[in-house]
Write a structure and sequence with these properties.
50% of the residues lie in helices and 3% in strands. The chain is built from 5 helices and 2 strands. Strand 1 and strand 2 form a beta hairpin.
C-alpha cells in the first residue's frame, strides 16, 4: 500500500473537517441572530414569551466557560481569540471567526462590533496586524526579553561576577 494515498486521504478529511467547522460556526451565528430577531419581534409586538429560546439559556458547558468573564470588553475577548489562534498555530482569524469564538467561549454575540473594534485595534491602537492578502488579523510577534540568555550570549546576572582571587576573609568573617 502506498503511504502517499494515506497522506492524500488525510488532507481530504482535514479540508472537509475545516469546511464543516466553518458551516457549524455559520449555523451557530445564524441561530443566535434568529434568537435576537425573535426577542426584538416579541418586544415590538408586545407578545409574551412563554418559553425561553435555546439561545437564551446558557448551556452547562457555556456557563462554565463564561463564568468570571461577564465584565470582559470586546477588545479583551478579541485578544483572547487571537491568542487562541496563535496557540493553535493559525496564521490569524477573520472577524467572523472571532465572533464565533466569543459565542462559543463567552456565550456573547456582539455582532458587527467585532469589525469596528478590530479596525480600531489595527489603525489607532496598533495592537493587531492584518494580512491584506487574506484579511486575517493576528497579534504582533512576541518580543524577545531584554536579557535573553543563550549559550552564545550568557546572562550578566549577579552570580556571573568573577570571584575575588588572592584575598582572605577579613575580621568578623566568622568561624
Amino acid at each position: 500500500m502506498d503511504k502517499h494515498l494515506i497522506t492524500l486521504r488525510r488532507g481530504e478529511l482535514e479540508r472537509e473537517r475545516g469546511s464543516l467547522n466553518e458551516r457549524l460556526d455559520a449555523i451557530a451565528l445564524e441561530l443566535s441572530d434568529l434568537d435576537v430577531a425573535e426577542r426584538v419581534f416579541d418586544r415590538l409586538t408586545g407578545a409574551k414569551r412563554s418559553t425561553v429560546s435555546k439561545g437564551d439559556e446558557p448551556t452547562p458547558q457555556g456557563a462554565a466557560k463564561a463564568a468570571g468573564h461577564e465584565g470582559m470588553t470586546v477588545r479583551e475577548m478579541i485578544k483572547a481569540a487571537l491568542m487562541d489562534a496563535r496557540q493553535r498555530g493559525l496564521p490569524g482569524i477573520a472577524p467572523k471567526e472571532a465572533r464565533a469564538y466569543m459565542v462559543s467561549v463567552y456565550g456573547r454575540d456582539v455582532g458587527q462590533q467585532v469589525n469596528t473594534t478590530l479596525h480600531r485595534m489595527l489603525t489607532v491602537l496598533k495592537e493587531v496586524l492584518k494580512d491584506e492578502a487574506t484579511g486575517l488579523y493576528s497579534l504582533p510577534p512576541k518580543e524577545k526579553p531584554v536579557d535573553d540568555t543563550t549559550v552564545e550570549s550568557p546572562s550578566t546576572g549577579l552570580f556571573d561576577q568573577p570571584e575575588a582571587q588572592g584575598r582572605e576573609a577579613g575580621p568578623g568573617g566568622g568561624a
